[in-house]
Amino acid sequence: MDNMYRDAFIDTNLPQTRLTQEERIQVITRLKEFGFLKENIYVLDYYDPKPYFNLDIDLLYISGGNTFKTLNRIRNCHFDVEIIRYIHAGVTYIGGSA
Description:
By secondary structure, this protein is an alpha/beta fold. Helices cover about 35% and strands about 15% of the residues. It has helices at about 20-35, 65-75, 80-90, and strands spanning about 5-10, 40-45, 60, 90-95. The chain has a four-stranded parallel β-sheet with strand order 2-1-3-4, with helices on both faces.
């Protein structure tokens, strides 16, 4: 089953450091198990969020975790404004901390 949705993923269960390549692969592997295509998955880098602004996505998934830490991380990298823009553009916003 191939999923044609373009998905942006924000993982909230990771430490405050930048994702390693291995951690990125783990995130992508988990999403592929749900039918997402690798080329349609974007994993937000809190330390370099600019490449994740203005993506052509259908779904924004926020993983579960501490909602307050997640919100703080998102605000600190100014991605909160982008989430609002995505929602206004009709992007589906789901997840454990959404």
